[in-house]
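Hi Y.,

Following your request, here is the sequence exactly as I used it, all 97 residues.
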Amino acid sequence: MSTRTVDIAPALAGGTSDRAFRLYCYLVLYSRGGWVTVQDLSDACNLTNHQARGPLSELRAACMVESQRVYEMGALGRKTWHTHFRLPQETTSEAAA
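Below is the corresponding structure, written out as tokens. Let me know if you'd prefer a different format.
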């Protein structure tokens, strides 16, 4: 079985929603273990930020993703909080092995 199939297996086995599955698959296939913003995730999965936040919370509660909040410059030149997500480190290190 390929490593990408193994990475997607937790989402297949769980009771995740369709949107959560789409976001998780994007992280597995394209993030390379790095942090991805909610905006980038939602754009890649053809969702709005609002539509992506609930499923991302669902994935975080199931310990399938990690999140971090960063206080950084927003699009309008003001500092604001942005949330970034990535796969847990043990998942990405298993895929690399």
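Helices lie at 3-13, 18-30, 38-44, 49-61, 89-96.

Thanks again,
Q.
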